[in-house]
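task queued by scheduler; priority normal; single chain, no ligands, no partner chains; default sampling; output format set to structure tokens
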Amino acid sequence: MARRGFTLVELLVVIAIIALLVGILLPVLASAREGSRAAVCQSNLRQIAIVCRSYADDHRGVGPAIGQPYAALPNWALVVQEATGRPGSGPSDLYSANSVLVCPTIRSVLGPDMQRTYAMNGTGHAGAPAFAGSAASGTRPALPPAPPDPDNYDDAARPAFIRFDLVQEPSGTVLLVDSAPGPQAPGSPPPTRTASIIDFRNDQHIAERLGLYHGRRDMFMGSRFDLSVGAYREPPWTWRRPLP
């Protein structure tokens, strides 16, 4: 007795079912992959915050340099690399594509050669003049007046530092966040590194330097001064308060 084969209609039905299953499974797999990457990013941010906190403990409450010297210790990113086992004293020695300074989600978007994808909060250390304060508005709290910034993270002659022990709300104040490359200009980081500083009083910094790569490219991760880590869609207004 001859064996009956698949008809064209049956074959098309099978192909349609397979295509449907693939369409269902691909988003699930992508979500699981992003969940794994996000977990690694959170772990990275916590480790970096711990290194910065330990550095402050060893230096009378003063953390590593926020900006200058960008290419040498005690720049915060290079302090982190040295503390996590990378020998050397400059970028060519200390930066690596395989380190806690690289978020795997951002690497998947910007490329495998990324060497740093996080930025330190430099609010209150940008050499800005006195801040007059602001009134409460809607969900925005009132911000008190503030004196001129005591230093400027871009001043090579006088590097800027955060006094960790004087941060008033460590559980609600961010230390590090995912960052974006920002526009290329003289003095910008190389393409393998995103912005290393963000000033939350600077709207241009928020628009250009905040790295919205998680979720549906609408979220960023941040580690706080109490070493906890969270996901955000936008920076809270209170982050505009200058850091000590």
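post-processing summary
- The mean pLDDT is 89.
- The longest helix spans residues 8-58.
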